[in-house]
Amino acid sequence: MTLDPQAAEVLALGARSTSPPFEDGTPEAARRAYHLSYLALRGDLEPVAETRDTAIEGPGGPIPVRIHHGIGAPAEGAPALLYLHGGGWVIGDLDSHDDICRWFANAARCVVVCPDYRLAPEHRFPAAIEDAGAVLSHMVAEAAGLGIDAEHIAVAGDSAGGNLAAVLAIQSRDGTVPPLEAQLLLYPNTDAGQTADSYGRFAEGFGLTRRTMRWFRDQYVRSDDDIADWRVSPLRVDRLDGAPPAFVALAGQDILHDEGAAYAERLRGAGVPLVVRHLADQIHGFVSAGRYIDAARRTVLEAADAWSRFRTNVTE
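Structure for Acetyl esterase, as requested:
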């Protein structure tokens, strides 16, 4: 497969980095290194109508959140998106994915709520998903004050954030968290077993390595028993019928490709309304490299469009 020249440039930048792999240091060191890398890679921070930082009460204490009101979004009764950032459940914060959140806010003319959920290994599974559920419940309970329509809330996330978003979507189907209108998944992690063929095809040289992904997982789970829990590995859930409509973006040259594709196929087989965007020439994390990769913002626009079409289908 041909690699997008822009993605190849991002890989070349990474190859020139003097920082050691995340797994060769501490989580704190990984967070510092990631901070430097995302500042160099992320796309433009588009102006939005309003941004505010606040906090809500969560099961482990206050959860910092950033709220963007998109340009063109209604002042009241706007659709809303809960965005769960990627970073292997270990790294990432309110700034690391701020470009993506702003793109969604403007493209979907919505309110985007991004939580700084608890990270591993200080807070292992299920802390992150518990925080996500608490933020969703807050969005519904305080919808009027947030200017959103509680009937039109979607969840989105990339990589580990896509994992959390998929889990939250299943929980919404089961009624353990409020209902969701859609799930927008960007190269999601769906099986912590890490046995898919793409782990071999793209083990090294494509950004996220097999060794790094194993380190991320081992920081997140409490024991190997958690790997089989569908709240860690949503691909292993018994059934997916009745799950919210889904947009799934897959990077063709990504160790997570095959499990993401398998999850999309399970959604399709369960009759879930589905839009799959397969970018054969892209690498893991390309949406977080908007400064270099044109497909980053374009994929967010496609996800926002899919959500809009899901919403139209629901209301007609």
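The chain has one domain: 5-315.
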